[in-house]
Design brief:
Elements (H helix, E strand, L loop, with lengths): L1 H6 L5 H18 L3 H11 L5 H23 L7 H21 L6 H20 L14 H20 L4 H13 L3 H25 L5 H50 L2
Helix pairs in contact: 2-3, 2-4, 2-10, 3-4, 4-9, 4-10, 5-7, 5-9, 6-10, 7-8, 7-9, 8-9, 9-10
Amino acid sequence: MLETAIEFSLYLWPLLLAASFFAGLVDAVAGGGGLIQVPALFAAYPEVPPANLLGTGKVSAIGGTINAARKYLRYVRLPWALIVPAIIAGFVGALLGANLVSTFPAEPLRKALPFLLFFLLIYTILQPALGQNHQPQAHSRLLQLKGVVLGLVLGLYDGFFGPGTGSFLLFGFVRFFHFDFLHASAATKLVNVATNLAAIIMLGGLGKISWALGFALMIANIAGSHFGSRLAIKHGSGFVRKAFLVLVSALILKTAWDAYFS
């Protein structure tokens, strides 16, 4: 069904490629590229089932996320004993979340999301030193367990619902593991790769992905992520913090509109 719809709508591809480029740029800096790309797909193909559009969007997103992670890892060092368990837990959580979509309604979470994001925004604003300095804690089993919990919970959320996952991960690495925003952004990209891959495996197995459009959008997303990651690395944690605050504010408006006014 999706391939047929796209075959007759090729004139929309340039607009979708532009949206994917900017989604990759935004996502590389502070997460949340889905705020741009997913609405663009839904607007272009309103007749296509949501699962097909979300699956195709994940193909696009994973390319940019991998590219951004690769660039970040040239400049930052991460505690792999913490990050690897979080990545694995994120993958498992996203698979579980994708399985829960057909069992539990997402409406209560959709209604609560703007308030969760508002709390995250206010907390970050009231803590001006949060994420400015990179002071990771010494490795411990407890810290590793926290990484697993963070990856599992937000992987579950990403597979089940998704909006704002990158922002929540970024905040989690800053708040609970004392990363600065630059290192937290790098860690977020790695966990996001795992959650996106899980969704692609799940939705691809169900035939819910347009691979032609997905790979075309991936190229544009990678190009955007190239510029976004360069901006973040060049301007540092202060720049990423500001971008994060702007993005979360936009997410609050978008999710509140979707939940209560659309």
